[in-house]
Amino acid sequence: MRATGSTGSSRVAPISQRSQVEPFFVMEVLKAAAQRQRTHGDVIMLCAGQPSTPAPAPARARAIEALDAEVLGYTEATGILPLRQAIARYHHELSGIEVDPDDVIVFPGSSGAFTALFLAAFDPGDAVAMTRPGYPAYRNTLRALGCQVLELDCGPQTRYQPTVQMLEALPQPPAGLIVASPANPTGTIIDAAELAAIARWCEERGTLLISDEIYHGLSYGRPTASAWETSRESVVVGSVSKYFSMTGWRIGWTLTPPALRRPLEVLTGNLNICAPAISQHAALGAFTAAAHVELDGHRRRYAQTRDLLIDRLPEVGLRSYAPPDGAFYAWCDVGHLTDDSVTWCRDLLADTGVALTPGVDFDTVDGHHMVRLSFAGSTEEVAEALDRMASSPLLRSRD
After folding, report:
1. 115 Cβ contact list (under 8 Å, min separation 6)
2. Which of 58, 138, 316, 363 could form a disulfide with 291 if both were Cys (CB 3.0 to 4.6 A apart)?
3. Is the pLDDT of residue 49 over 90?
4. What's the rounded mean pLDDT across residues 336-347?
5. Threshold 0.85, pTM exceeds
6. How far is CA 97 from the centre of its chain?
């Protein structure tokens, strides 16, 4: 049944059923935070999953050079060759894997990569598994495309990561499985041996493993592994958004098995034509040694802020949280404070000016008593936010 909408005229605009997906609640938080900032000027943003720093200086310099020297018209659908070569070298340096530039397809952000990948690999009705909690855009995009989403209940006993045992418990192997490590919202990293076992299980059963590795480079003592270390039939998704501090530049990529290369090239050519040309040239600067010096400084700051959180979250009243192995998130249980995380986050913003993300974005079952806290901002801002939270009656237990 097609939904319809009306603008008050005699014409009725058609609205597809596939568009009827859940909103990304963090966007509602951002809207409320912007209003609070206009009226009070005191907002501390611990809700946005993005660095608070600009693109590294070498990337910005490359963008300026490109403005002066390049036409900046359409590029190859798969991305300019120098960028694909740089991405291939990056993965070799990071994970020790051999990557050919032809393995790399560049997209307008990892979001563009996921949409094209879901279209290329899955048909309506196909079952695709993902973790719960997990990034909501996986679930919402898959459902918009007519896929069946299988949520794997991942809790603290498995560090909020999937296991082969969970996959074995499914009635039949799914068409696809999405694994994210470090993960959003939990920040946890899957054990290398478990990822390898999952990759082998998927390859043996014809399940496409999609490994979201966009937070690689942001880990704090726990090693990260790539799915391509075990299975070249998996797809690795990368991005310059997180470690590289270039969210708005919209450059993502896939490491792509041969069977999916042509379908993804054709799809992204139709959907996007190409990733933004100036952003592709800027990203070349992000893969330089000078940029990594700057970016590793950001990572050290995140690590310092993470340590601050671990020390102070219990003092504030948040005693139960996922181990933040990587990324820049703390996934916190507020069940002793509320059973409505949306209202609680709204009230916390109104009371303190601190913006957190309600857990309902990430967990369709238990998100009502969870929140995500981002520590991507400055250490001083996070410390101030914790001070405000500690003084709020909303952080006093209901018990």
Report:
1. 141, 271
2. 58
3. no
4. 95
5. yes
6. 23
